[in-house]
Amino acid sequence: LLATTIILAPLSANAADKTVGFSQIGSESGWRAAETTVTKQQAEARGVTLKFADAQQKQENQIKAIRGFVAQGVDAILLAPVVATGWDEVLEEAKEAEIPVILLDRTVDAEKSLYMTAVTSDLVHEGEVAGKWLKDEVAGKDCNIVELQGTTGSSPAIDRKKGFEQGIAGADNLKIVRSQTGDFTRAQGKVVMESFLKAEGAENICALYAHNDDMAVGAIQAIKEAGAKPGTDILIVSIDSVPDIHLAMDAGEANATVELTPNMAGPAFDALEAYWKDGTLPAKWVQTESKLYTLKDDNKAIYESKKSLGY
Ligand code: GZL
Question: Hey, what's the signal peptide range on this chain (predicted)?
Fold first, then answer.
């Protein structure tokens, strides 16, 4: 059941006494908070000194943090880039200072030579798994879909939208009638879902596709307040598999979620240790398989097991 077992790597001599700067996007979702927890656990287990900077989802704060890490002369930088563009200049500065940069969970449009490697998931595949689930679930019935997109311009928002459309391709009965960003947060997910319900009427919305569970949890609130039943009147499929979506599924208020591991730091630190040891330049690390959970799973047990994983 434990979908993401975090194996704390043995102490590695060449990582101890290293200092790594981590420019984290923020704490916009349960998944993001878990990624931060796991990164700190991994650094601790490997004897790495981690300098943590929370950007409150603002790119300018991430750029400032990276400049600070360069000035401090850290040994490496972890960057979870809030959006995909606007990084070339600051990545050039890190490269000038010969400080390797590893991207976590999101990618950038910058030159590949400007970062050492990226540890991500196949975001298109995640969207496709969600779309295919919905296509099977509605089985030919007409279904108007509303979509809560992630942060505008972020690689997950772009790729999960693309993947979902691939997943529902060929099914003329499925139609995305509204699509707007909820910025990956519960609060925005609720506000935008309220506007969808007002514009379309709950009775005309068959399903919600949310690019992450937190926006889905916010939307569930809005659907209830509109007097409709989430999970039955309006089907809900999202991505991350955070504990609270399993609580919602246990209550029959959500229908499916696609799992994303919060442990991006493990492979990142492995790559850094190999690099520090003998200059090995690692290949990209991608989570290619994405487990689908539905309300038919033992969601109470999954909730309990995930709670112990840093969420
Ligand atoms: C996806 C990651 C997303 C999560 C959200 O790799 O960047 O960011 O799915 C988080 O929960 O906000």
Answer: 1-15
Cα distance between residue 161 and residue 47, in whole Å: 39
What the block records as the tokens of 196 is: 């969808």
- As for the ipTM of the complex, it is 0.99
Contacts for 112 with CB less than 8 Å, ≥ 6 apart: none
**Does the pTM exceed 0.80?**
yes
Atom of ligand 1 nearest to the CA of 28: 12
Helices (H) and strands (E) in the chain, counts: 10, 12
Which residues are registered as beta bridge partners of 22? 52, 78
pLDDT tens for each residue of 169-204: 999 999 999 999 999 999 999 999 999 999 999 999
Q: Is 267 left (phi over 0), alpha (psi -120 to 50) or beta?
A: alpha
**Å from CA of 17 to ligand 1 middle:** 30
Ligand 1 is surrounded, with C-beta below 6 A, by 28-29, 31-32, 105-106, 121, 156, 184, 212, 214, 239-240, 260
pLDDT digits (tens, 9 = 90+) for 268-282: 999 999 999 999 888
Q: Which atom of ligand 1 is nearest to the CA of 151?
A: 12
